[in-house]
Amino acid sequence: MSALLAAAAITRSYGNTPALRGVDFALAEGEIVAVTGPSGCGKSTLLHCLAGILRADAGTITYRDQDIGLWSEAARSRLRRTEFGVLFQFGQLVPELTAVENVALPLLLAGSGRREAREAALGWLDRLGVADLAEQRPGAMSGGQQQRCAVARALVTEPRVLFADEPTGALDALTGEQVLGEIVRTARDQGTAVVLVTHEPRVSAYADREVALRDGVVDPTGLGLGVTA
Questions:
Q1: Rounded to whole angstroms, how far apart are CA atoms 223 and 162?
Q2: What is the Rg, in whole angstroms, of the alpha carbon atoms belonging to the chain?
Q3: pTM for the full model?
Q4: What GO terms are given for molecular function (predicted)?
Q5: CA–CA distance from 175 to each of 142, 146, 178, 199 (Å)?
Q6: C-alpha pair distances (Å), 137 with each of 43, 86, 97, 98
């Protein structure tokens, strides 16, 4: 069976500085894979390429056997609104919108009706334990509350793949564990595959498998964090 999402020999540079140097990657349906390694090793660049946010300079990235590197920016944006979900370290909620408006936004952009989108958003806020914050704006929330809302927004479309880039990096240890537990539990419940970028062993421990990067390549020893995969 072919991988749900796969990369073959992808490279990416910023000017004269290489970030990825021939990376291979594969993600199966419903699998949680941690991409680990020290700061500057190319973890976030790999995630952004896999999610279609950045174009690789060379190599191929396929989703459901289709080369998304050949797609237009509009087509890749549409993919991120429907079948991909993206969660960043600082949540990146829209500060002018309430929690329910933030969570409903991906559905509205995908063409859902306003009432339907709001009902789905409220359901996800309740699932993540922050329904009481539905009418609050991000500035009135704690970091953990904001990140729970961001998780709800990333999962409201019930994506087939969730990309989580250091999702607990801005949180204290206890809140980070709670948010990560919610991400993993929800992903398992709905069969969502997850690409989880982290430099923390305690976070990578939640994954089914670890891919360690070092200096823009996959570390064959699996010791990107100083621990085995």
A1: 24
A2: 17
A3: 0.89
A4: ATP binding; ATP hydrolysis activity; transmembrane transporter activity
A5: 10, 11, 5, 17
A6: 31, 20, 6, 4
